[in-house]
Every structure is written in C-alpha cells, then in structure tokens.
C-alpha cells in the first residue's frame, strides 16, 4: 500500500511569508506526528495528533507554528511570518492506534531566503 | 526527560569490514529503543527495535543491536558492511505507552568505501 506522502518536496520562500506543508498519512493510521530536522541534527518533535485533535503540541517552537488535521487524515503544518531559522526538513510520520512503530514520509525541505 | 547520545557523527569503513555505531540514552523510566536508517534522498525507515524480551534484536539486512540496561546503551553492529549500507543512522528512545513520541539522537553517518 501507499506510504506517507508529503507535499511539496521542496519549498523556497521569502522571509516573512506564510507557508503550508501537507502530509498524507498511511490510510487507517490514527496517529500523526510532525518533526523538524535541521542540518546535522536528528528529527525534533513538533506536534502529535490522535485522530483530529492535537494530543501533544509541546514541541511547537512558538505561536507562528500551527497544525491542523480536520478530518483525522491529512494534516497541514502552517508557518506564519517565516524566518531564516525555520529552514529545515519537515518530516511527517504516522502510526496505527497503539502502534509503537512510526512510518515516515520523505519530508519537505523548506528554505527561507 | 529522556535523551540520546550518538558520539560519532561520522564512521568511515571499508566494504566487508565490521562496524559499530554507538548509542547511549538516559531515561528515568523503562524504555523502548529504535534504530532508524535514512538513505540519501529518502525518508527515515525503521531498522530494528527493542521493546521487551531478548536484549539482542536483529534486522533483516544483517544489523543487530543489544540493549544493555546497566550501561544504558543500544549499540548497532554489523559484521560485514556493504556499499549499500552507506546512510545516516539515528538512534531513538521512547517511553512505553501513551504517544510513543521518540527522542532522536543527532545521527551517525556511515560511509562505506570500496
């Protein structure tokens, strides 16, 4: 079956602009996670959804970052007033309810000029 | 709070040589441990995991890792590497139950030379 997909694969934007990053999880997976991976670092947790609700958003760095999952499937990570420091690869992962294995998408590389 | 330390940022080896990628963790509770691999231009893939039971876990492509509670380590080993093993390897720890949100190490780049 299809894995986790993320669009776009690359996004270049200018400082101060708004961006949206999309994640399509594996069908039937109720849990969805967003991570940020900076160059030379491991993935850093941002937010976790169980169904439609954000069960844990403790990793969001500030209020410029927001994520939604209105129908419990596709999720969108939204970044307002982007800054150069937001440049990173944004990873999405999904897992089944109660599952301890996360399946990762290929990521979206965000570059803020 | 939990943390993961991967001491080696890069490990260069020759093909068919053995390799060990080191991982140490800290946690105040029992843990689940994972190794993920990221091949060039691809997403992270689970390589192997320790949840409970036997402390030695193996992957389908010849890697193995041993959970050592006393040394709080989960080192990854392979007796003979291939060029195709060249990738970034991430160790991760999570707590049983709940959201399984893992904490990742910063990664070790395994570079296999012919």
Overall, the morphology of chain B is: globular
User: What portion of residues of chain B belong to β-strands?
Assistant: over 45%
Structural class of chain B: mainly beta
The succession of helices and strands of chain B, N to C, reads: EEEEEEEEEEEE
Largest sheet of chain A at a glance? 7 strands, mixed
Cα end-to-end separation of chain A: 37 Å
Tell me the β content of chain A. Answer: over 45%
How far apart are the termini of chain B? 41 Å
Q: N-to-C SSE series of chain A?
A: EEEEEEEEEEE
Give a quick rundown of the structure.
Chain A is an all-beta fold and 113 residues long.
Strand-helix topology:
The complex is a heterodimer of chains A (113) and B (114).
Chain A: E1 5-7, E2 10-13, E3 19-24, E4 31-37, E5 44-50, E6 53-56, E7 65-68, E8 75-79, E9 88-95, E10 103-104, E11 108-112
Parallel strand pairs in A: 2-11
Antiparallel strand pairs in A: 1-3, 3-8, 4-5, 4-9, 5-6, 7-8, 9-10, 9-11
Chain B: E1 3-5, E2 10-14, E3 19-21, E4 24-26, E5 32-38, E6 44-50, E7 56-58, E8 64-68, E9 73-78, E10 87-94, E11 103-104, E12 108-113
Parallel strand pairs in B: 2-12
Antiparallel strand pairs in B: 1-4, 3-9, 5-6, 5-10, 7-8, 8-9, 10-11, 10-12
